[in-house]
Amino acid sequence: MRIGELATRSGVSVRALRYYEEQHLLSAERSPSGQRHFPESAVDRVELIQRLYTAGLSSRTIVDLLPCVVDGDATPELLDRLAVERDRVDRQIADLAATRGRLDSVITGAAENLRTGRSCREAATG
Amino acid sequence: MRIGELATRSGVSVRALRYYEEQHLLSAERSPSGQRHFPESAVDRVELIQRLYTAGLSSRTIVDLLPCVVDGDATPELLDRLAVERDRVDRQIADLAATRGRLDSVITGAAENLRTGRSCREAATG
DNA sequence: CTAGAACCTGACGCCGACGTCAGAGGCAAG
DNA sequence: CTTGCCTCTGACGTCGGCGTCAGGTTCTAG
Hints:
about 5% strand; MerR_fam (chains A, B); two-stranded antiparallel ribbon; homodimer; DNA-binding; DNA-binding (chains A, B); about 130 residues; mainly alpha
């Protein structure tokens, strides 16, 4: 498929796809006129890339790990880097969970204050 | 305390602290000579700010929500924004958990391939 | 054949959370 | 007094993941 279709199907911009190719995250056949042609599998691959991006991995890291993630093909060194990233994601999740808890208790408390018709500040001074 | 001490105690750079003040995330008394002086409570506050940053909130959002988070003082509108952010964090956690699972199974699979002394690629071609 | 959509390659713009450098005070110790 | 560290205010630099514009080619529908 051409780049426009891949863009709509994977939900990312055409510009982003070109960027991914530039970063060697994605490869494409070229038609004689120079247009990119992607296989069906590119849709999944782009979604995977997005997933890794949102997990905080950089292009550099992703390009190193992708062969391993896609093919299951790894060296001990790659395995290490994968474990490092997984652990980072673990810490990130724990951190977010703590923040979520904090936000939640703030929401609960503030909602309670609203319901009882007074803020903590007012409660303190009055 | 002065800015250097706050920096070492909260684990962020002096530059970052000045930036936080500039963004109205932090306020400081000034000595006659212009040096900032922070109360003890600033340490916790900086850690809270860091927590919210790493949860993906922007300075703009944090500055709006901080009074609420710190004082429990909220309007219905603020409560909405808090809930929006909490839900975003929820989705982020779910997303990360999925990615973590993916990474983990890749690691397991690749480790298995290494242990059995062959890659998937080799397994496919031989 | 032609209009318009889709595609191409540069190349500059952007944004946020700082890093970093410059140049100039301030402050405790010997 | 001076040495040396801390602090100050600008102000420009950075980096990553694109957005966006320019100027040109290519594909497709009528």
